[in-house]
Fold each of these.
Amino acid sequence: MKINQVEELTGITKKNIRFYEEQKLISPQRNPANGYREYSMEDVKQLSRIKLFRKLGIPIESIRKMESGELQLDDCLFKKVHELKADIQSAQMMQKVCQEMLDQTTGFDKIDTDLYLAKIDQLEKGGTQFMDIEQHDKRPSIVAPVFFAGITILAVAAFILLLFYLNSLEPAPFGVIGFFVIAGLAVCVGVIIACRERIKEIKGGELDEARNY
């Protein structure tokens, strides 16, 4: 069956199905006549299992290990139950601290921060998981997209220069040279647009995070 049918049967988007294929969680056969993927009912069942476990927050690596037999279902679920219990306990303790602040504090500028931070520190030492602000409250880096965009543009520029150099040694038809130059410029424009959108996405993410507080 085609991916549209699988999407309808499982409720999993084509994008996610492709992702699970990339992760080697499913391996649909290809039709030798046209090269298209042909999904089987076993693929559909496997995708349903993946959907179930991902809904429960089971990591993809754990699903892969269960599929290969490296990890038993009982062990995976036991670990998840333990994690959920710990999360519930942490949430209850955070609720307790918030309720205490609600009952005892009359305003933002009157909060006894030293008192409550000391309580949180003590609770963390006892195993309660509060938000790790060092991991959450930091600016996403735009260095990587800018770096890779720059490398790509430099590579295209080098290719075009090499093309002109070779053309000076042995002239080629103008149409061929023009095609490669235009194609290279189109790649550069596409990379710049993609980089700009990624930077906007990162900065937009910062704004979205700020709106949560």
Note: The radius of gyration is 27 Å.
Amino acid sequence: MATQDREGGDSRPVVIGADQVRLNGDLTLPDGEVKGVILFAHGSGSSRLSPRNQQVAGDLVRRGLATVLLDLLTEDEEREDMMSAELRFNIPMLAGRLVGALDWIGDQAELKGYPVGLFGSSTGAAAALIAAAERPAPVNAVVSRGGRPDLAGEALTRVFAPTLLIVGGLDTPVIGMNEKAADRMKCEVKIDIVPGATHLFEEPGKLEEVSARAGDWFLEQFRH
């Protein structure tokens, strides 16, 4: 059942079958015209309830973009991962589940035909880039927030979707990792530094800057 939520759109829980498991997610449709669909890939140790991803998703919904936030681990796997912290770094597995979620989006009548973007955070950015390489047709754009695109490995050379790598200006090690990853990519790629921001963009106004830059990138690419 759809409910009106704080993001200004109609939100409802969904269950997505991917990689032989069933994943819990939340689909939010904006009020008015839908300009595209954004699938979120959260980072290590996080979930669809991540306040940062929820804040960015809400900002994108207000700009006319539908959002899909999902847990990349099942409830049992999350409990296991809390003890071992291993599954959150199994990037091939997470990427396979994102591919399944992309296929799910393509099967939904209310989402079918819209341009699709991937928004990845931390290790989720690597999973998003691998998924974009595996499903080039439906993916029109990728945005990474404080991501580890370097962990996508050889898949970087197979990404066709225009990619924006947003990094905090104070997140020096991750800036270097993003630069090395960008050098390997053959698609349109841009590194966007947010001055004064650390890895989690916790400083006042910095996450709003991420939302604005991501929204601009998605909407620009979707118009092509």
Note: Residues 3-222 form a domain with the Rossmann fold fold (CATH 3.40.50.1820).
